Every structure is written in C-alpha cells, then in structure tokens.
Amino acid sequence: MKKIPHRLYLTEEQMPKQWYNLRADMKEQPAPMINPATMQPAKEEDLYPVFCQALAHQEMDAQTRFVDIPQEIQEMYKIYRPSPLIRAFNLEKALGTPAKIYYKFEGNNTSGSHKLNSAIAQAYYAKEQGITSLTTETGAGQWGTALSEACAYFGLDLTVYMVKVSYQQKPYRKAVMQTFGANVIASPSDTTNVGRQILQNDPNTGGSLGCAISEAVEKAVSTPNTRYVLGSVLNQVLLHQSIIGLEAKAAMDLLEEYPDIVIGCAGGGSNLGGLIAPYMRDKLTGKADPRIIAVEPASCPSFTRGKYAYDFCDTGKVTPMAKMYTLGSGFIPSANHAGGLRYHGMSPILSKLYHDGYMEAVSVEQTKVFEAATYFAKHETILPAPESAHAIRAAMDEAIKCKETGEEKTILFGLTGTGYFDMAAYTAFIEGNMKDYIPTDADLQRGFDGLPKIPGIQE
Amino acid sequence: MKKIPHRLYLTEEQMPKQWYNLRADMKEQPAPMINPATMQPAKEEDLYPVFCQALAHQEMDAQTRFVDIPQEIQEMYKIYRPSPLIRAFNLEKALGTPAKIYYKFEGNNTSGSHKLNSAIAQAYYAKEQGITSLTTETGAGQWGTALSEACAYFGLDLTVYMVKVSYQQKPYRKAVMQTFGANVIASPSDTTNVGRQILQNDPNTGGSLGCAISEAVEKAVSTPNTRYVLGSVLNQVLLHQSIIGLEAKAAMDLLEEYPDIVIGCAGGGSNLGGLIAPYMRDKLTGKADPRIIAVEPASCPSFTRGKYAYDFCDTGKVTPMAKMYTLGSGFIPSANHAGGLRYHGMSPILSKLYHDGYMEAVSVEQTKVFEAATYFAKHETILPAPESAHAIRAAMDEAIKCKETGEEKTILFGLTGTGYFDMAAYTAFIEGNMKDYIPTDADLQRGFDGLPKIPGIQE
C-alpha cells in the first residue's frame, strides 16, 4: 500500500492527452436524436447551423473510442488543471467509518465548477472553424461564467442570455461574466423575435431557461459566423468532461486504489458522465464491477421517477428530440437551491446506461443535502456547491453504512464546485427556513402528458 | 533549464516543516512594543491576557530562526496546501514581454486568501493551552472566514465582531462564517461595554474596524478561557505566513529559477512578509540581492507617505503601541475597494526593513489596479481579489519595462486571493463608476497629529 497524501495532483506529463467516448464501448447505443422538422433521425449535417462542424461530429460519433485533445485545449487545461484527488481523512474520522473516501474536486477555477472543461473545448472548435461569436444561456451562472473565461482566452465574442430572475437576483454572477468581456442580456429580451413575443404577452415575466435557450439559438442561427453552445446533456459535453474521470482514475491508479462505489450528482449529466467514464468502461468491458450511483434532487427526480421517452431538450421545443429519462419538457421544477440540477431531462448516454442496469440512482431532499454540505465544510474546509453536496450526501450515507457493517469500502465521489454564490441557500438552511419539495404523482403526470408524439416511434 | 510547467505543486514530502522567523537574521531589530499602561517596553507576560502563551512567545521571540510547525497544523495545511506556483505564460504572451512571470496563488481555499495559514496556527495554539473560545474582528470578511474554518476544524467556539456596515452589505460573507459555526455579531453591539457606549452616543453608526477590535478584545479578556486573535500586522502572523515564501522558494528551486524581483501587496503586511521571507533572508545574509517591492493603494499609502513612528495598532487605542510606518490610528482611509489594504499602519518587521533600505514601495491608484485585474483575469482565468491585484499591477508594470529594455527578468508576485465577494467593485470599474482617492497632505497631517506621545521616546 502506497502512502496516501491528502491531495494528489498529477503532473502535466501524467495528465490525459485524450478524451474517452463511452459510446464506443456500449453494447447497445442510445436511440438516435429525432429532427422535429422531419420526424426522422437527425443527421450530422442537420446540426451544422447550430453547432460548429467538429462539435456536430463529436455529437454523432459513437465509434471513436479515444479522441485526441487538441494541443491548444491541453494548454488551457494546464492553466487550472489537473484538479486534485483528495482523500477525505477528516470526514472519515468525523464519521468514524472504516470506509476510504476520495473526492475529485473541480471547483478550483473561477467558474467554480467542472463546466470550464467543456466550455474550453467548445470555444476552441468554434474558433478553429472561423466562428467569431458564440451564444448561450445560463441560469445559475456557472456555465455562463465558464464560457466567458473560455471566450476571453480564445478571443471570441460571447452573448449570454441569463434568465431574468437570475440576472436580477445574482448581479455578481453577471458581473463575473462581464469582467471576462461577455455581453450578458436578461432573458426574455427585445433582441430576438421569441423574446419580443414573450415580453408582449407578459412584460413582467422573470423568464425561464427554456426561453433563454430559444433566444440563444435564434440569435446564433440569425447572426453571421455565430454558433450556439450548451453546457450539459449533449454527448460532446460528456466526451469533454471525461477528463474528470480519466484524471481521477490515473491518480487512484498511482495510489493503487480502485473504488467500490463511484458517486456523482446528476442534473443534465455533464459531471456524472465525465466522472464515471473510465469506471463505466471497466463495467462495459467486464474488467471490473464498481457500483455507480447517480444522485438527484427529490424535487426533480428524472432518473428515479421520470419516463424513458423521447422529449425535447428545452422547454421551448426548438431542439432535436432525444430519448432520455425525462419529467417532460413542460415540468416546472420547484425552487430547489441546486439550480444546476433543475433540469427536466438527462443525458441520453446516461439514460441508456441506467435503463440497461449499469448504474443506480437515488434522490435526496435538499435539507438532508445541506446538512451534509455544512458537515463536510466543517471537516474538509471546502464550501461545496449545493449541486455537489448531493454527491456528498450519498457518499456520507454509504460511509455510514460501512460503519454499521464494518466494511472497508473505497468510495469516490465528484465534488463539482464551490458554493460562494449560493449563500442565500446556506442562510435559509442555517436559519431553519429551508423546505423540501417533492412533486406529487399528479405533478409528474402533467409533465408526462406533454411528451411529444412521434409517428411510429412514440405515440 | 528544466521544463517549466504551468502549475507546480510541491508534494507533501516537499512541503516546509518549519516556519522561518525573519527577525533572527535582521542585523537591527524592530523597536519594542510599548505597553500604554506603563509606557515601558511590553513583556511577553503583558500579552498573556490577550494572546495564548505560545503565541505571545512567538510575538516576542526574535532569536529562533526556524520554528517547527506542529504536526496537527501540518495536517490541516495538507487539506488545502501546497498552493500552486504558477507560471503566467499567457500573461507574458499577451504583454509581449521577455520577462518570466511567476505567481504564488493562495486563493484556492474557502477563505479565498492566505489568511487561513495563520488562522490555523492561532486556533491550534489556543486549543493546546485549553482555551475553548476565541474572539476576533473582521471587516471585508476574509480573516473572519479563515478563522471560522480553523475553529470548526479544532472544535473552538468563535465570536466574530463584524463591522456593521459590512455585516449589512455582505450578508453572504457572514453566511459563510455561520456555515462554519461562528457566532457573527454586528459591531458595535450590546454585548460589550464599549459597544453599548458607542451605540448610546450614535445608535445609527455603521461601526469601524477600530470599534470591532475593541469589542473583540473586551470580550476576550472578560470571558473565561477565551483569547483574542488578529490576522495581520503581528510578528507571529508573519512567522506563520512564511509558509507562502518557503513553498514558493522550494518550487522555484526545483525549477532552477530565482526571482530578480519579488512583489507583494501590502496592507498590514501578512502576505508581503510571508512571501518575501526566504528572499529577504538571502538579502540579509548577503546570499542574493533580489529587488523586493511592496505595493499599496494610493488612498492608504503608509509606506510611501506615512511616518515611521510609534502608534496604536487600532483606532480604539487599546492595543500596545508599535513602531511602524503609519498614517496615524485616527486616519480614515477613503472607500477604496481593497478592504484588506485599508489599514493605517504596517507590520513593525516590514517597517524596519523598509526603513533600513531592504525593500522598495510603490503606491497605485485603484482604477489602474482594476485595469490590471481584468486584464489578468482574461489571460490567466483567475479572478483576483482587489488586494492581490495591486501586486499584479506592479508585476505587469515591471514586465512592460522589460519589454522596453529587452531584459529577461524573472518576476515573482503573490496572488493572495480571489475576488468572488468583490464583484460590486468590479461592476463599478466595468461601468466606469470607479474613482481614485488620494489623500491631501492636510488629510495626512490630521492623522499624524494624533500620533501618541511617549515620554522620552516620542514627544
């Protein structure tokens, strides 16, 4: 057994030089996207007006197992990566568990999360194609911040449609994006047809992620040399985020450790899919059989209570339809504080793997999540993002089970980011004002009722 | 020449096991503190009611060159340290300078700054002596946050007197401290005599750091098993913060690099004294002669326009008097956004070294500082704290000079922390609403007029 440090950083030489594409090892592929205009499977070219070609190709490519990370992306990764693999010695001691707990911490960059890993890749490929400007939407703001950093680095213009209520409630998130040079617009806005229409109907609306996506897509397709980018759900995003799991596995290999359980929080799947990638590969290829656990909020339980069905990726219904675990694109998640997990659907790749029995899912209530977050902060000194704290909750629960059974399991979880911009949520918890929200079956049924009909595929 | 990585992290084995005490190599010592009750040099025992004994000893000990870092402190350091030494390849490229720029980044912990290095030490020694509770004050909140983390880790109660105007304007900073279990009280408060008196005179006052210090000291000396702690200025703080410079030097040694110029921002001196410690040692012992530059705000220019004189460390005049560069304890700095640099005095050790010609000092205006901060963020992706950006400004200025002269100088600067809680300042800069404040000679004279009279020493 090697001496285990608190924090292990790979050297630059040890950092992965390729991303890993999970689809190459899946026995059954995720169902193809459906183009709503034709009701036929989408082709790579169908995506070109929205995504740059390299990304459209990555979105559709199920064959290439390892994708070389371009040198320029590697260079920018080196500015903030590798992220540390941390042994939670203090948390273990406080819990009195025989379990060994490791976590991969992605919060040590200005975006405060793992989102930067894909933002850099998406900005780079756009620039390579001669694209000069990108559009995107942001809710809580981590994705918008990450993309602002990437666009500043590569010299691209960026327009971020920020859900109006967030724009007003989180002026500091907006200010971070502006510091990096992004043009941040409260959505709905008068800069798009869809925005103007929504404002005409309801001038006082606070906006929604669905509306912001629609505005960002419209802006991209109607502006020369401009493309739209998205921070989760997509296959390309899981590919880029595989850097998390590859680094984690390389570090654990150095320590001669292998996890019995791998745990990640699940919103659209960007972090979870990235973290588990090399371990899922071991499962798919029969090399090992770790338990893999997705953790989602009880208020937005797409894995645990959703349907595996074709649905739109956005509430505005402008995107292709994907087969995934979904609560329906019309489902309105309650005001859970983990904004990054308030998404109706789930990565089609992860949905397929879950459907086929390769992973488990649990849902947790947010008061239990914040209880874990504050406990973790006091013992490990890191203030976690509410999203990340879902994984902490599940990891602590597994470690407590080990205490009861005496099993010395090795647990790895993803700590996706920091909670500096989520202190209103922490305050609500500390002051006892946090509530739990669990949708009723009737709430869910309303979402399912809005699932699209696709002739011959989904009636 | 070694291959230079973007980020270099020492291994746990390479981390320093001892702090370095600059005084042991100073040919002339800083003047002794004066006890205002006796007007005589303060003795170690005089400090026992306020500081725990180990820290009082460190405060007075000018002999011990290297102080072993207790094992328990090393263990907590390992949770968030080592901090990276970063080569600013992108900044160099953007500036087109032949200079090599390195920075030591202390912002990757929840306190967001280097303050945690001393908070841990101070909490540890208090606990070792059987102290159960600490008090302190905080303005901008980084010190209070750091101490909250340390007290949560060591199981000590903590009461933080937070300047009322900050308490009201920065509820999220308060929330972070509360998350770590600290009792945060808006100062002035009704929990102390001095607080009640101030409130009686002016019920609507927003408070001041001086008042908060007075409350924290009163609370400490009037509560059983309680001591007061302070995050800057003190000799003990410089000792603990030497970890910054020792790590930086160890990393640069591995790269076979030696700085021609070492640059740090200067408020009370905690970061500057820590960063420069091993390089100042080389100067004091004649081993090398790097330039050492302190950077302070033009609005609070203690080095560049202050007097080298005995003064109180607080505006409430309850502390011992120290000989230092000071603007007078009654000097009210203007509303500069770098809250951590709005201090009237300067570490007595650094003051003596500056007085004896071992270092230089420059002052910079805050609009120039934020110009550097946003430029740095766009190229290096880290959003710096306004305090840290003072060092960035000076480093960029030196690198630009190198461009003009063609000199390939090696520059090392301290990036003390992140600016996530300073976005109001960034917004003011981006929107063109930031002003520069430079005190007039008359402003300064009012501060000097309040310097204490000490019979036979300072008339």
TrEMBL record, chains A, B:
Keywords: Amino-acid biosynthesis, Aromatic amino acid biosynthesis, Lyase, Pyridoxal phosphate, Tryptophan biosynthesis. Tetramer of two alpha and two beta chains. Its cofactor is pyridoxal 5'-phosphate. This is tryptophan synthase. The beta subunit is responsible for the synthesis of L-tryptophan from indole and L-serine. It catalyses: (1S,2R)-1-C-(indol-3-yl)glycerol 3-phosphate + L-serine = D-glyceraldehyde 3-phosphate + L-tryptophan + H2O. Its EC number is 4.2.1.20. GO terms for molecular function: L-serine hydro-lyase (adding indole, L-tryptophan-forming) activity; pyridoxal phosphate binding; tryptophan synthase activity. Pathway: Amino-acid biosynthesis; L-tryptophan biosynthesis; L-tryptophan from chorismate: step 5/5. It comes from the Bacteria. Residues 80-417 form the Tryptophan synthase beta chain-like PALP domain.
